[in-house]
Design brief:
The complex is a heterodimer of chains A (about 325) and B (about 290). By secondary structure, chain A is an alpha/beta fold. In chain A, about 40% of the residues lie in helices and about 20% in strands. Chain A is built from 13 helices and 14 strands. In chain A, strand 2, helix 3 and strand 3 form a beta-alpha-beta unit. Chain B has about 290 residues and is an alpha/beta fold.
Amino acid sequence: MTIYEEHGWKMVPSRNGFGLALRDLGETHPELVVIGADLTESVRANYFAEKYPERFFNAGIAEQNAATIATGLALSGKIAVFSTYGVFAAGRAFDQLRTTICYNKANVKIGGAHGGLSVGPDGATHQALEEIALIRVLPNMVLIVPADSEETYKATVAAIEQIDGPVYIRFGRSPVPTITNKDTPFEVGKALTIKDGSDLTIAACGSCVAESFLAAEILDKKGISARILDIHTIKPIDKTAIELAARETGAILTVEEHQVYAGFGSAVAEVVVQTCPVPMHFIGINDRFGESGSPRELTKFFKLDYENIALQAIKLLERKF
Amino acid sequence: MLTDIDRAKYKEIACRIRFDVIKMTYHAGSGHPGGSLSLVELLTMLYFKHLVHKPIDPNWSGRDRLVLSKGHACPALYAVLAESGYYPREEMWTLRKFGSRLQGHPAKDKGLPGIEVSTGSLGQGLSIAIGMAISAKMFEHRDNRIFAILGDGEIQEGQVWEAFMSASHFKLDNLIAIIDNNNLQIDGYVDKVMCIYPLKEKLQAFGWRTITCNGHSLDEVDKALEIAREKTGKPTVIIMKTVKGKGISFMTNKAEWHGKAPSREQALIAVTDLGYPENVLDKDIN
């Protein structure tokens, strides 16, 4: 039995939440259309495509065209969802996202699948480790990195029902522990406190939230009280929750399945240094490409696992003012 | 064939549009006159005859859509929009100035009536038009048309060929692409920089109906637009032979006039070329 199963967490890929939300929203939103790029099942757009074939368009292996067609549909009053792997959605189609989708404030939602190391054995070419940096610099864009499939479902619903403009949702391929449930609150731009604490804060996004929670359990046993924040919305980021965490706990450790440079930790640090500077440490990928391996092996290798998070938390405490 | 009276009317409008392009870019001190001047007859025939639109109700849902994919040619578009009554003529002279709705490339969020979409990064406009054409044909079931105007150098962008492929795949016979084939781009002749020819054969192989015309003959442009509107089950492309800098003696067929404004002396020559008195160059300028 894995530590995740011991906690009663079901292992579900977060992409499932995206697919299920599209399928459910298709019924209530006749203006919802989905544009794929040959990876229909992989990004779980097949849930929608099978139910609403007349509202699903496959652009083939042509992400730049796909993203831009989505814009034309959005400018004609549709809610257009474009989904492919993160490396292509944020990388290959970056200028289309910037100049066509964001500059026009087009109502396009981008499902950035296979984020992080979750595509494991496929290796570095397909492991998206740069999207947070690329996407959060775009004006008019909202960026959400949900922790699990339930949160991905809610993020997709919110993106489509509450936001009139571009939203990028980053989710993963392999199963991750479902640490939230249907009743867990979700509000775009509002961090979720997974566990309260007073000695330091561990701020995480995506699959790193569950690992951070497990790290907090280790810390608890050592008498260290860690606050765990699930900062699912990276843009606009919850400045209030971050400032409060800095003031009340005095140290912040960030954890992300992404490059440390210009990533999630940097976004948190931008708030911390301008409100209440406290010692910080960033856990993430340190300026290198990924490589083949199982997601679990890679999580350990890149030190994104709960044991290392706990270790780094203890080290960070030594630097507290 | 146009009647003599109509031809004379469109010719007069085209001449005024050319004058506006010169006056706008001169007072802006920068801009793209060359590729604007090659579009003048096309935009004249579109906005004053073929385009289904209502300048007093720019967002009217039944309108045709026009995407100026070669966004740098916006001075010509701004001029026809003013001439059509979308916004006051005097605002034209704010082109490229701080706070203007007439940005250096079309900007939807600045709110100039008649601008459907921001463009400027080449290669994307046809794909935007495809999205609009899908929406009109498959969801709104409208009989309107979606136009995309592309530069010939622009089709060196790979995305344009992704778009050509997908438009015929989706059978978008409400989509009309127009290629402004002046054979010049910033670095020189298009076929020397990176050859795009044979264009007609390539586009037919991509599943498009092709029409060719002389882009400076009002009669030919009129006829091409009339034929293009017919639905045949395929997307239509008009390959329009044009001359960069058309109508201004010293700009004609010169790549260097892609992206620079005329000096005062040059602007005065241009105004004279178009048959206007020199003093209109500064009229209504604050």
